[in-house]
Specification:
9 helices, HSP40/DNAj peptide-binding domain, alpha+beta, four-stranded mixed beta sheet, Chaperone protein DnaJ, DNA replication, ATP binding, three-stranded mixed beta sheet, zinc, 26% strand, heat shock protein binding
Length: 378
């Protein structure tokens, strides 16, 4: 069923333009997100703004009065147009489509238009993106004018009908061509196609219905977000001209580098330095995790350089899913660069005991590298 846009504004069918504007201003003053942070109020404000758009645009209002919904993709078919759109209902509109104007008028345009989306960056530490946080951001955007509530007029005044186009929003001109006289229409230059002029603009917004303001907005960052992701805040962007519905605000996450940990999706990585003796004999390595908790990592005897130890479930939470990734600990075995006489003597004795005092070819396979090359030819 089509939405009852008159009922959304608390009006009866056939309400005048003045009644529609008064109802919208009254509701917008109480429901706007900058005034009422209640989520239900935000949804109600969007419904009210949508109803205002539908009833202040002549074409959309005609569809509403016929029982249709102007925002429905198929609403134009209700008018019986052979082109499937509400804008081609008669001969004048067809002429307008081909010659840039027509004998019929499409009516004035609404001053109320939807606002633009806004984008702002938010820098966070790795701990904040991994475990989530709530941050406050300061944005400088267009908000609803508090003096006129979007009407654009000075207090106690109202828009008047444009004398250039007599409220039609268009002016017509006649040109001669080889086809005869062609009547073309264009938006009225005096009222910009709205059919109304504001003789006494609002002193606060200058008839725009919106003003620039700096405001602070809380942003809830879910656990597991990554660098470059965007969080959408519906209806927190720019308020449109004429006090139209606000666009959306997108917050782009920018992750600061961490001193110890790096991130690859849901997995975390870190490098630990291990003395040569500890790698050979095995040890228990103390490690502080990203959340600040301490844990012990068991290093087996004979651990080689480049070994990766996996701590399961110690990575980043999976966004929009359950569970966490892993923490991958990369072992960097350190070889001593300076030895005193006693240390050098002990290492030499160890090398003799292990038969490593005279290093030779790798013993990975019998016969060494050259024997592996010769084997295929035997």
């Amino acid at each position: 069923m089509a939405t009852d846009y008159y009922g959304v504004l608390g009006l009866a069918r056939g309400a005048s333009d003045s009644d529609i504007k008064k109802a919208y201003r009254r509701l917008a003053r109480d429901l706007h997100p900058d005034v009422n942070p209640d989520p239900e109020a935000k949804e109600r404000f969007q419904e009210v703004s949508r109803a205002y758009q539908a009833l202040t645009d002549p074409d959309k209002r005609r569809i509403v009065d016929l029982g249709g919904d102007p925002f429905d993709s198929g609403a134009g078919a209700a008018g019986g147009s052979p082109f499937g759109g509400a804008g081609f209902g008669g001969l004048g509109d067809i002429m307008d489509a081909f010659f840039g104007g027509g004998v019929g008028s499409r009516g004035p345009r609404s001053r109320v238009r939807a606002g633009d989306d806004a984008l702002i960056g938010l820098e966070l530490d790795l701990e904040q993106t991994v475990f989530g946080t709530t941050e406050e951001i300061t944005v400088d955007t267009a908000v609803l004018c508090g003096t006129c509530s979007g009407a654009g007029t000075a207090p106690g005044t109202h828009p008047t009908t444009c004398i250039t186009c007599s409220g039609r929003g268009e002016v017509q001109s006649v040109q001669r061509s080889f086809l005869g006289q062609v009547v073309s229409s264009r938006p009225c230059p005096t009222c910009a196609g709205t059919g109304q002029v504001i003789p006494d603009p609002c002193p606060e917004c200058g008839s725009e219905g919106r003003v620039r303001a700096r405001r602070t907005i809380p942003v809830k960052v879910p656990a597991g977000v990554e660098d470059g992701m965007r969080i959408r805040l519906t209806g927190r962007g720019e308020v449109g001209p004429g006090g139209g519905p606000a666009g959306d605000l997108y917050v782009e996450i920018r992750e600061r580098p961490h001193e110890v940990f790096t991130r690859d999706g849901e997995d975390l990585h870190c490098h630990v330095a291990l003395p040569m003796t500890a790698a050979a004999l095995g040890t228990t390595l103390p490690l502080t995790l990203l959340d600040g908790e301490d844990t012990d990592v068991d290093v087996r005897p004979g651990t080689q350089a480049g070994t990766v130890l996996t701590l399961r479930g110690q990575g980043a939470p999976r966004l929009r899913a359950t569970g966490r990734g892993n923490l991958l600990v990369h072992v960097d075995v350190q070889t001593p660069t300076r030895l005193d006489a006693e240390q050098e003597k002990l290492l030499r004795e160890l090398a003799v005991l292990r038969g490593e005092d005279r290093p030779g070819p790798s013993s990975e396979a019998p016969g060494g590298l050259f024997s592996r090359v010769r084997n295929p030819f035997k």
